[in-house]
Design goal:
This protein is an all-alpha fold and 208 residues long. The chain has one domain. 77% of the residues lie in helices and 0% in strands. It has seven helices and no strands. Helix 2 packs antiparallel against helix 7 and helix 4 packs antiparallel against helix 5. It is globular and about 65 Å long. It starts with a helix and ends with a helix.
């Protein structure tokens, strides 16, 4: 019986070694939480701005028209959220990698970033096309859809749990493309709430 337990333990250790060699496992759940909080803060700033200027925002519906000033403001907020989220995510990921004596920049992290970058780049171009043609009500759903696809595509190079987050983002994006009056709400849920929930689950599963 002891021999069998030792064999099972050895197999488990071999599996862990294989996972470490083929997956980027330094992602921190705190990265997801911080990204979600950044998105919530960004959504709060947008709501405050629209309220201050008496803008009747209805989630980028078909009848909602954005002038150049509003578009510039939204792009600035989105860029600020992205910079803050990436900065905090990098900080927590690097800290966890150092704690676990793992390399932050290796073949696994390169594969992960590459597989994330392709759908995200395509999504960025597509959102730019939507803005160019004035199809504003589909920008938020498109961001969620392409982000979900990026997470699903990159999940094979990191924790498999990220696949479920990607599926949730994808489904939410597809649903919000039908209910275009809730673009801001769906964006807030997708990039804010879902990130916080995912980050908390990841943290208590792997880091506690």
């Amino acid at each position: 019986m002891n021999q069998q337990q030792e064999q099972l333990a050895a197999l488990h250790e071999i599996r862990n070694i294989m996972d470490r060699s083929s997956r980027f496992i330094s992602l921190s759940g705190l990265s997801g939480i911080s990204a979600g909080l950044s998105a919530l803060a960004g959504a709060g700033v947008v709501i405050w701005y629209f309220g201050k200027h008496d803008i009747a925002y209805q989630g980028s519906s078909r009848d909602f028209v954005l002038n150049q000033e509003i578009i510039l403001f939204l792009l600035t907020v989105a860029l600020g959220v992205l910079v803050v989220a990436l900065g905090l995510a990098s900080f927590f990921t690097i800290r966890r990698a150092r704690t676990n004596n793992q390399r932050i920049w290796d073949n696994q992290s390169k594969r992960l970033l590459w597989n994330l970058a392709i759908p995200l780049a395509a999504g960025g171009v597509f959102c730019g096309v939507l803005l160019y043609h004035g199809i504003l009500y589909l920008v938020a759903p498109a961001m969620l859809v392409f982000y979900g696809l990026a997470l699903i595509n990159g999940s094979k190079y990191t924790f498999s749990d990220i696949r479920y987050l990607g599926i949730c983002e994808l489904v939410l994006g597809l649903l919000s493309s039908f209910f275009v009056g809730y673009g801001l709400l769906s964006w807030t849920i997708g990039f804010g709430v879902l990130h916080i929930v995912y980050g908390a689950l990841l943290y208590f599963k792997y880091e506690r």
